[in-house]
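Final report, Chapter 2: Outcomes

The project's central promise was a pipeline that accepts a single protein chain and returns its three-dimensional structure in a standardized token representation, suitable for archiving and comparison. That pipeline is now operational. To close this chapter, we reproduce one record exactly as it appears in the project archive, with the input sequence first and the structure output second.
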Amino acid sequence: MSSEYLFVYGTLMSDFDNGMATLLHMNAAKIGTGTVPGKMSAVMDWHFPYPMAYHMPSSSKLVKGEVYEFDDIELFDIVIREIDKYEGIKPDNNDIPSDYDRVKVEVTTEDGNVLECWMYVAEDLRKDHNTIASGDFNEFMKDKKK
């Protein structure tokens, strides 16, 4: 039996308490942390900052996040459809713009392994967003609370 993996770097991580994070954590196993080459920014024009990551395979900068494993593919399909809605993915209407796209990327795990994971990536790098230089949304949020 094969597994599906999801790399998350924002409000779906284990430090966050919201309905979609709970759905993920109840139905998939967190297998650790990982990184993806790219950049991260924060959208500040909402009631709560949220991150956008840009997958850039040749970048020396890293986006930091968590890796979740689904060992039940049918359950993955159900959960990922709900998370797609949360992330604004519009599977049946490509004419409606979305901030994110869900793509497969190579994630380097904390133990040095490379896994092919699904990841929500931003459609474009916008200059009006705050850059998260560390690539770590948890760190960014802790700094915001100071």
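Archive annotation: The longest helix spans residues 73-86.
This record, like all others produced under the grant, will remain available to the consortium after the project formally closes.
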